[in-house]
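Sequence, structure tokens quoted for completeness.
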Amino acid sequence: MAEIKRIGVMTCGGDCPGLNAVVRGVVLAAFKNGWTVLGIEDSMQGLINLDYRSPHGNLELTPDTVEDILSRGGTILGCDNKSDPFRFAVKQADGTVKETDVSTQVGENFRKLGLDALVVIGGDGSMAIARKLMLKLNIPIVGVPKTIDNDLAATDFTFGFDTAVGTIMNACDRIKDTAKSHDRVLVVEVMGRDAGWLALYGGMASGAEFILIPEIPYDVEVIARRVKELDAQGRPSAIIVMAEGAKSVGGDASMLGDREAGKMARYAGAGNRLGYELSHRPDIRLETRVSVLGYVQRGGSPSNFDRILGTRLGVHAVRMIKEQRFGRMAALRTPDITDVSFEELEKTQRLVEPDSSIIEAARITGVCFGDKWPN
């Protein structure tokens, strides 16, 4: 392979705290090697269409550019979850939208921009796309794991997760105040898709009475019985931290309609569904309210853990490129940063094990998961 002189970096999928730390780590490490760095705007958009501007287009990145971004949430490059080049939404002449394979454009534009390698920062879906681009177009790519859901099996933790858990904890601490003041049950819906890590860590950190996760289907009867028991014990309030992908026994997760062309399916309504069921039970004296935390979980200045982890992952991505170890993703294997192949990522998703020690600890401390009576 030719000598590396110029690399690209992109932030794919949803935003999360710590993305800028990774970008900064990539840029500073690359410049140490005498390379230049191009930031690709809005995930793959800036490679699919070189005229894309939202608002600035692709950016030349230098140490001066990234000097003050470590503490900033979001990403200076922009991101989206609708730029999969293998199923890109293209408007047809009749006004309809059709998923189209535009991956060849990505390869052509990669070479037009004079890039020698690409750093893809994203989740499991982004890594799968990166692998397909490598196999089809022979683009040298390395990956950095990114998701607040913390569901990538190949790494101990993903950056952004720690900050999001802190946001959930702080929100629940505040919501608990109003729950106690009004004698209410508060259902707090959090993100996570089909992994329960955010709900589990956020719920435990805030001392929630209930934690509902996709990996442990819940029974409304069990929840109702526990609420009534708490009320009878002189505790007329409760916090239910609920993952957006949680579902009842024999039920399905709540989704927002059908998946749109070029986009991921969206979860919505889990908290309101449970809130409705509890509020319409005549045997529960307490009122039930629902708070959907939503996108507040993605924003904000990253925690010290996420800043350091993001920086280390970015530096390791550059090391992989320098050593021409492509088709691999940087990963935290505490206490070290190592890397794994893209193929390994496709084997398993990291979900909460219902019989794990952390679930046991939560049950022992009185958390009800809606499946059985607390210990």
